[in-house]
Amino acid sequence: MSTAKTRHHHGDLKRALIQAGIDLLEEGGLEALSLRKCAARAGVSHAAPAHHFAGLPGLITAIAEEGFDIFSKYMTDAINAGEQTDRERLRGICRGYLQFGLSHSGLLKVMFGEHGLGVHAPRSDNREEAEAYLILRGVCAPFVPEGEDPHIVEAQVWSLIHGFTLLYLGGEFGCTDAPIEDSPFEAVMALIDRIGTQATG
Amino acid sequence: MSTAKTRHHHGDLKRALIQAGIDLLEEGGLEALSLRKCAARAGVSHAAPAHHFAGLPGLITAIAEEGFDIFSKYMTDAINAGEQTDRERLRGICRGYLQFGLSHSGLLKVMFGEHGLGVHAPRSDNREEAEAYLILRGVCAPFVPEGEDPHIVEAQVWSLIHGFTLLYLGGEFGCTDAPIEDSPFEAVMALIDRIGTQATG
DNA sequence: ACTCAATTTTGACACTGTAAAGTTAATCTT
DNA sequence: AAGATTAACTTTACAGTGTCAAAATTGAGT
Asked: Which Pfam families match (chains A, B) (predicted)?
């Protein structure tokens, strides 16, 4: 009664379909992703995926979960790469966030976009996304004033880096090719540096 | 040689198609938007739109432009509604940004999303978007330190409110139905209040 | 009235997702 | 071990989609 090992025909088609979907996504963006193409790449007929996913939205959800795993890896790597001070860890997670977006824009769109979920299903009970959020929570914790709701700082950091990443990816800052250091990224980091401080004048 | 008045058959089909598209978008989200349905609503055959737009991306671009007009209106209204201090105007534009997103999420997705443009075409030479950006610029101006690049403050404000709006719309804060005052919106506004100040401690 | 170009329609094609029914292969039961 | 059962997959079919090419229609200019 093995759960997903070399079962009936294909071996594990589910995995193959998800991987094909990710490849398609990274090669040609969201437009290039289709159930039938995934099936073709996995070497099965076009209706086979129906037995593993709830249609296209189901496949996209599975891809998004996979995306959150990679996303988490980017963030922890960036955190660990820098100085191990509270402030540098906070900056680090932002760098990881942006770098993930730059390297996997298709995944990012799928994770937070139209289908990702959001409307279609409650995000709460999603292991992968919850894990990513816990990383954010850990990094933000040192900046949460005693007795205050941690969600406040988390919302500030998340909104800022999420917004920047999406605008940057959309070319809204008009500098998609320039080195990151020259972009408004440092400006956003300067605002990050003000989190958990008190304003004066 | 009038440019767009009661010309040949339909009157001005272009306008009707854009309006149909906006309606579709607000009724059923992005999924519900299709060239053929727009054509049907405008009472023409399915291939008629081809002569007014460069395919579906072209129609979406036109809808996005219309969206930026409405967007600008939301922001200026919110700015003018509040106290006329620099700080309150800054808060006002954020309120307008969020309220537009809440009322017209489909438009927002089209404006900044996959097709909106971003990749497909350079955003710079877009009258409607440029106008929206100028509103942001005007509100940010009082907070730009002398001799510094205004883009810095603009990127900070834009990233923050854009990210918050998208995350909020995606249900990421888990409070889509609660009153805005209870949401992390106030937290984000607290960070906005720190723009143009100096950190201490 | 004739011409002509812009506008719209018709028809077709290659895709898409999805559902239903049929086929094959592995597991379970006895 | 043999038959029954179920899961995985294929085949077929249908309703949509965007897009193209060729025809038909319409409005305006001469």
From this structure: TetR_C_33, TetR_N
